[in-house]
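Continuing from the previous page of notes. For each protein in this section, the sequence appears first, followed by its structure tokens. Read the first protein now.
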Amino acid sequence: MIREPSKPRADWRQRCEEVGFGFHSIDGIYWDETARYRFAAAQIDTLERASAECYRVCMEAATHIIEQNRFAELAIPEEAWSLIRESWEKDAPSLFGRFDFAYTGVGEPKMLEFNADTPTGIVEASVAQWHWLEDMQAELGGNADQFNSIHEKLISQWKWMREGNFIPQSMHFTCVGDHEEDEGNLHYLRDTAMQAGIEPLYVPVEQIGWDEGNDFVDQHGARIDTLFKLYPWEWMWGDEFGKNLRRSTMRVVEPVWKMVLSNKGILPILWELFPDHPNLLPASFEQHKIGGDYVKKPLLSREGGNVELFRGGEVFRANGDYGEEGFVYQQYSPIPNFDGHHATIGAWIVGDEPAGIGVREDATPITMNTSQFVPHFFT
């Protein structure tokens, strides 16, 4: 795993925008092709195996949590428990998720967390960096490849859900309105659904209404039968939306059982069920059970919010609005540091299969919303 300098394409902005990646320069430069990451084929094989294995153990842990009724340890609202069990028992399908790995290129990748409910970074990890690879082939020697079948697998998963009657021919897609990054991710997912033969209707989440005689409705008053949401389940339960969910017939993607996988409370339970697993890190609900350097994580933190890293007498803290529900403690695992560029691997799962990776960098060991995306390739 090597970070090397790279000459940006002259038309890189246009090329990004052609695939709907308009937020490439959000907060300065988010998409950064002045560098690139080179992997060996064996390292890509390792990341693919680790992705599949981590998904397997996470699903086993979810089964355990649901069957043993351990929702309270994850601070999941009690009113959601029955709906979680119901969606799990019905095998409500999942579209995607993203593992965050610490991986230096040597040894086994270590799972930091699983972004299983509302993962972002999908458009840049899929079509944006694939276009970069195609445009850079001559410079890369003409035989470069990329761990990236995200786009094709998204379309295939939508088709599978449609053909299995899990979703209808027409469905709604939602996220927070006027949020450039969320809308960029959502509209890309709408495009993949459209390529799978689905009519993807858009409704900003704040414009979803409730009709006492007609369930949830969109901004035009039309009933919402099935909703894909790029909006966290825990936020939905915290407002009027959640109250109406209990009497709604609306189907939701991602399904409500994803509340179990997306909660960092699964990390201690994973370590309890699979101690000494090569892809897991020791984790606990109690700090004193973690020896040496460690990371304190809120159960429901996003983009590094309120994460604290205790390493060799140093403390790194990220600001945020999380932590009210509680914390977990995970043994610290170093991520690669290339002259101040701390790199985290985002490994995508589509359906239940590994689909590719993206590399994000931050100036600190905590990957936050200030991170930058750097494309990768392997030979």
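Done with the first. The second protein uses the same format. Note its length before scrolling.
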Amino acid sequence: MAIAPLLFLLLIALPLGAQTRHALDLKSFDKVWSTVRDTHWEKRPGGLDWDAIGKEYRPRVEAAATSDEARTVMREMLGRLRQTHFGIFSEQVYDSLEDGDGPSGSGETGLDVRPMEGQVVVVSIQPGSPAERAGVHLGWVVQSVNGRPLEPLIVAARQNPDIHVLQLTRSFLARLSGPVGGQLDVEFLDGRGERVPLRLGLAAPRGELAEFGNLPPQRVWYEEKRLGVTAYVRFNVFLDIPRVIPGFGRTLQGCKPCDGLVIDLRGNPGGIGGMAAGMAGFLVEKTNQKLGTMYMRDATLNFVINPRPDVFGGPVAVLIDGTSASTAEIFAGGLQALGRARVFGTRSAAAALPSLLTRLPNGDGFQYAVANYISQDGKPLEGVGVTPDEEVLLNRRTLLAGQDAVLDRALVWIQEQKGK
């Protein structure tokens, strides 16, 4: 007789759990709907009556039998905006991207990787880093980190169009980081298809700490070198105004004999928007020019270029890929629209706008943008990105040979300008 009450309790537990989940889905819908209402740059988001949209879709979430159905309804509602960077990630996908159960820390192996040909491929190695000392080569495939394979992340990205190269790459790099002084067991696949297990140390990140506003302090590095008589510049983020902009100016000041300039923005996620216009002032001689305009709910920001006294007039090549975002896109796309730079690589992240990613009450992730950007030639970048003048794809074959196909093509183009 004692068994009956126990069975009764078990039978009522499932409906209660389902009811709790259903309530969280409703709270999540309300959060998504109200966030768009309050933060979208248009008072009528997408030209829609957002109050009417809420009244249309909320009953459908109330009627949803599962969280998957509720999620589908919310995605359909956001689709009515016809704007990118408004998306819902399932809790499982959000957790895998955030890698919440992995070791946290700022230590780095010195590797930079990209999704390529269905694999995670090493595209650059920081000189003197643990990865270089361990003998890692360009073009190697990262199979797993501390026994955790990376392939499931690529599979998840294929199944969810809301996951972009930028987010995917950040997830890879998060797994290749940890506490400074720690170690990671990384299994690679070399150029001959053989597995290479290595234990990589985690070193302090390069660069100087920089702060801006309420943003957390971040390491910023700026590098320059000469490739023959061509100047090459790369920096990791548009921050640290006192060092990066003067450094860029000094590079160009010492570049009188240079036949051209390469600005490598691959992997640059953006930063302070005004820095794009400030750096463009070293390259654009004409007055009354701008890189574009950003529209927010209560403000408009014009990226006006103020030419410097001594402007560099040689050919400029800008390198981008799917991890070039925000201010990097504004800089590349603006110079392209003005005819001042030729862009090489692959389409940028299409994330020129301030975009936020937050967790909903039901555990799902919600991404939304809060501004719109129009380039000087009248084209939006959000959801479209910067299209290179010359699309050049990286591939394992050339990387294994130690070659950077994107940079090589840009250098050839600069040489071709001599006769013009």
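What the second structure shows: The two ends are 96 Å apart (CA to CA). Residues 139 and 399 are 5 Å apart (CA to CA). We return to this in next week's lecture.
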